[in-house]
Design goal:
Elements lengths: L1 H18 L6 H8 L10 H27 L4 H21 L8 H12 L6 H21 L9 H4 L8 H24 L5 H12 L7 H22 L6 H18 L4 H14 L9 H26 L1 H13 L2 H5 L5 E3 L5 E3 L1 H8 L3 H8 L8
Antiparallel strand pairs: 1-2
Helix pairs in contact: 1-2, 1-6, 1-11, 2-6, 3-5, 3-6, 4-5, 4-8, 4-9, 5-9, 8-9, 8-13, 9-10, 9-13, 10-12, 10-13, 11-12, 16-17
């Protein structure tokens, strides 16, 4: 089960660090564990490929963030650097065909690591994130031991990536939304300006599919529910061991809902993002939840405007295509359902990955293409 695999990838390194007395490194291990969300429904060899790429980028993001923290980068310099990095990460994620799409998790890792004071040797943070990524890779590939297929080459075939002009345009949306969100948050003197940048990045992933506007609204509503849940959870005292188990459980529930409904998933995932700093830099609950709600509204609102202004032609084309589609095509069952010998069926991993990344139109198209059986 993908959700259980992701939760175990979080729980194992967090519990190991807590039991070893290194709670100061847990946030970096948690970012490494988030590598598990990539390729979560893909075949084993393809998942290994994508998670390996994502793990390398995640390690670089955390190490870069720690270096920025130790160099004293803050304010405008951090906003500028984060904006440039987000554009580069968008291109890298598109070129490598990572799902979930976009630089969201990598940007979160970089900006959060850069915003937390770090006074230990840098190799400790690198070791924490690297070891956590290694755990994720082992968990992700473990199911191969009982897989029926023995032809790894067939599992590595992927469609070509999007044309470079489209990838560059998409990266430009990230640069614009994140730069504006970070600038406004910095000008306003908000306490966690990187939250506004991260909130602006999330809806952009679905912009090319015409689903970015809905995703922005879901982002705001889900975060509001999440901050209320966080406020409730912060009324209780959590030991580091209890907090590690709690974060893994919350991520598990969020992963269960992430394909079905993005805003419900965020209700459970938002406390993970807010409470991960409780290991190293606890803050008053009221300040934490207010800042999160305010800056998420700011970031998602800016993303909404950017998507609205930059995807008019795309949305018009989607509407025209939907209007011209015969009714029998809309009623036909999706051809991406893979029928197995036991009478059950499963959708192709490509379509589920598109759903995870908030790309419903691409998911619908992939479900109309014939799909071969996978592991």
């Amino acid at each position: 089960m993908p959700a259980l695999r992701v939760a175990l990838g979080i729980a194992i390194p967090l519990l190991a660090l807590v039991l070893a007395g290194h709670t100061d490194l847990t946030i970096y291990a948690l970012f490494g564990a988030l590598t598990g969300v990539y390729g979560r429904v893909e075949a084993h060899w393809l998942r290994l490929k994508h998670q390996s790429f994502a793990g390398l980028i995640m390690c670089a993001s955390v190490i870069g963030g720690v270096a920025a923290s130790m160099a004293g980068l803050a304010g405008w310099s951090l906003v500028a650097l984060s904006t440039v990095i987000a554009g580069a990460l968008s291109l890298a994620a598109d070129f490598l065909r990572l799902r979930p799409a976009g630089p969201f998790f990598f940007l979160f890792a970089f900006t959060a690591s850069a915003s937390i004071p770090f006074r230990q040797p840098p190799w400790e943070a690198a070791a924490a994130v690297g070891a956590s990524v290694a755990v994720v890779l082992v968990l992700g590939f473990a199911g191969r031991l009982r897989a029926r297929r023995r032809d790894p080459g067939r599992m590595l075939h992927e469609p070509p990536h999007r044309p470079w002009p489209r990838m560059l345009a998409h990266a430009g949306r990230y640069v614009l939304a994140i730069g504006v969100a970070g600038s406004i948050a910095t000008l306003a003197g908000l306490g966690h300006s990187y939250w506004a940048m991260v909130a602006a990045a999330a809806p952009i992933a679905a912009a090319d599919a015409g689903g970015g506007l809905v995703r922005a609204v879901h982002r705001i509503l889900g975060t509001y529910g999440g901050v209320l849940l966080t406020a409730l959870l912060l009324t209780m005292q959590w030991t580091p061991l209890q907090l590690a188990v709690l974060l893994a459980a919350l991520q598990f529930v969020g992963e269960v809902f992430v394909i079905r409904h993005y805003s419900i998933a965020l209700v459970w995932m938002t406390p993970v993002a807010l409470m991960m700093t409780e290991f190293v830099a606890p803050k008053p609950a009221g300040v934490l939840v207010f800042d999160r709600a305010l800056e998420t509204t700011l970031g998602a609102g800016i993303a909404f405007i950017v998507i609205l202004l930059t995807t008019r032609g795309l949305r018009r084309g989607v509407r025209q295509t939907a209007a011209g589609r015969p009714a029998e095509q809309l009623a036909a069952p999706p051809s991406g359902v893979v029928h197995r010998g036991d009478g059950t069926g499963s959708r192709s991993s490509a379509s589920l990955s598109e759903a995870v990344s908030g790309n419903p139109a691409a998911a619908a198209l992939s479900l109309r293409r014939p799909a071969s059986r996978c592991e």
